Amino acid sequence: xxxxxxxxxxxxxxxxxxxxxxxxxxxxxxxxxxxxxxxxxxxxxxxxxxxxxxxxxxxxxxxxxxxxxxxxxxxxxxxxxxxxxxxxxxxxxxxxxxxxxxxxxxxxxxxxxxxxxxxxxxxxxxxxxxxxxxxxxxxxxxxxxxxxxxxxxxxxxxxxxxxxxx
Length: 166
Hints:
The protein has helices spanning 7-18, 91-109, 153-159, and strands at 31-35, 48-62, 68-80, 133-134, 149-150. The model has no long low-confidence stretch (mean pLDDT 82). With 166 residues, the chain is an alpha+beta fold. Strands 1-2-3 form a three-stranded mixed beta sheet. Strands 4-5 form a two-stranded antiparallel sheet. The chain starts with 6 loop residues before the first helix and ends in a 7-residue tail after the last helix.
């Protein structure tokens, strides 16, 4: 029988993979998602920390033999933000954005948390791991073909979200 991941680990992974913080000035914020404990030292390099813990758990047997059990976990999600001098926006504003983002992720992914949707969000010229390329050709080019060129900074901004325009 395969091991089943506990609900807290699933929620940490889901939030960590899906969390997006866009500040009021358009820049991308850094968010750290972890289990249970707040770390003040992380706040030097991160804009926010999201901690996930267990608020309560109920474990009861089903039937007289207790060969099957029902476990209900109640997770607790906390958002931690520190007020930083010279920050573009207040800690309260970041916290509110993070709360909305957590609600969005849970609402959208509550039935299939194991499926990952790949997007171009946060992809740009600064990225060291992923790049986007384009080519104008009458036939499909091989991935190694010299006809491919990296898209411009404006092009990256266009693929971050769908505005129904080409």
